[in-house]
Amino acid sequence: MSLAIELRHELAARIGPPGWRIALETVPREAFLGKAVYTYEPERGWVPVRRSEMTPEDWLRLVYTDETWVTQIDGVLAEDATDPVLISRPTSSSTLPGLVVRMLDAAEIGEGEKILEIGTGTGYSTALMCCRLGDDAVTSVEFDPVIAARAKAAIAEAGYMPMLVQGDGLLGYEADAPYDRLIATCAVRTIPRAWVRQVRQGGTITAPMLGWTGGVAFAHLHVTDVGTASGRFLSDDVYFMPARPHAAPPLDAIQLGIGDASETQVDPSLLKNDTALFVAQLAAPQAQHAWAGDILTLDDTETGSHADVRPTPDGGWVVHQHGPIRLWDAIEKAITTWREAGNPHQSGFGLTVARESQRVWLGEPDGPRWELP
pTM for the full model? Predict the structure, then answer.
């Protein structure tokens, strides 16, 4: 048995749900990582690690660790990078296999079903689905033409021929609709209406969600009628790169201490908790947050609204708010509601997609709710 096959079997034994174990044992992940990946070093930033500079054995061991390997930074492939990239953001990666198969399993994918994947990426997850379901069952859409071309070559090298589309995944792919399952490998702020229209009644949409404040949730929705869907968030905390049109806009220079001052009973450091940050985002969906030492800042680029919260010498907190939206007041109210409900995880919330609106609810659909933008 070759080292690659041995490592695939070891990976499948560690992370593979029963339905996906054979696919993990079969699909060669090395075909999808190309000639280099990026690793992050605090002092240097994103550093390219090249296959040519490693032994074949060490490269295969890197490939089959259950890790996410970044393959593109701001449009620059790792194999094309000449120097480390200090201040920039990943734009494509090969997600850790453990998370990939957890997502596929959560999507309730089964034999005989037709799948639409949004975000082909390297093509590894596409190939896993082809291995289990057959080429004809899988359609995958990738926005970036360079990434799409690389994925197409890698998928073919691995021996699969699904329907691959280079285009805007937020529009889905109408030509092969309806689908039984839609799974997204990029994060969205709201569920695109085209996705709901293209999944059959009773089918599912499984997608990571990420807002501008940085709050995340993992949506698993059942399509209930034409153009409508509903479901709860799952227990996994998943972090995926946002679909490019859903990414947060750049912030201007931030001014501190402007606007009306008042006291608050909510410790701003609570927003370092993932679920609390998600709740804050529901209340102020257009805001972005940052920390300046122990001062929390919130800024809404659309309205120019601003808030900052800082500790006082007596152990309390003071908030300054400026602009048409009192960001912190809205967040404080939402956090209070969440605490009164017992601080549930995101899986205590759900999402309803109607034809004209989308809302997140706490507990049950008739519980406290927040409209998404």
Answer: 0.93
